[in-house]
Amino acid sequence: xxxxxxxxxxxxxxxxxxxxxxxxxxxxxxxxxxxxxxxxxxxxxxxxxxxxxxxxxxxxxxxxxxxxxxxxxxxxxxxxxxxxxxxxxxxxxxxxxxxxxxxxxxxxxxxxxxxxxxxxxxxxxxxxxxxxxxxxxxxxxxxxxxxxxxxxxxxxxxxxxxxxxxxxxxxxxxxxxxxxxxxxxxxxxxxxxxxxxxxxxxxxxxxxxxxxxxx
Length: 215
What we know:
Blueprint: E1 2-5, E2 8-11, E3 13-17, E4 20-24, E5 34-36, E6 43-46, E7 51-54, E8 63-64, E9 76-80, E10 86-90, H1 91-99, E11 114-118, E12 131-135, H2 136-146, H3 155-170, H4 175-186, H5 191-198
Antiparallel strand pairs: 1-2, 3-4, 5-6, 6-7, 7-8, 9-10, 11-12
C-alpha cells in the first residue's frame, strides 16, 4: 500500500486496534540485513546500520532506538525479553548475536573465550561488517597498539597505584572512576593506561606486596 501526494510516494502499512486505524509510516521487516533477535521478539537488528528497531504495537508505531555511547564509548541499552524481563546489553553484542541467530544473553563465543572487536576501533560503530570475533589476547594487543604511549612510571608509583586500586575496589566503588582519576592525576593520555597497570597487563615485571589484584 502506498500514499501518493505532491509528487511524493510514501510506503504505508496500517494496523487496526479496537476499530481504529493506526498508520505505520516506516515498515521494517526481517530479511537478509534485518534480523530477528532470539529471545527478544519485540525488536529487530539492522546489521547494515548497527541499529536496533522496536517493532510497532497496536497503539504505537515502530521506531529505531536512540541509544548513545556511554563514557567508555560503547552503546548500551535495556531490552525487554520474551519473559518480560529488562536486560541491559551492549548493542554490538545484540547485532552480532542476531547475525548468527543466537540469543544475545548467552552467545556461543563466550564459551570459546572470544571477544567482539570493532575493526575500525570506533566502539560506537556497531555495524555487522565492523564487528569480528577475536581472542581476548589479540583484542588487548590491538587496544594496546592504538593507545597513545605515556611516560614510563617508576616502580614505586606502579606499586602504589595497584595498592590504591585494590583498596578502592574492595570499598565497592566503580573501577572506571579510579582509572579516570588516576589517569588525570598522573597526566596519562587515556584512562585505559591506568586500567592496564591496575590489571597487571602493563608493568608485569613490577611486583609489590599487594599484588593480590582484583580483576
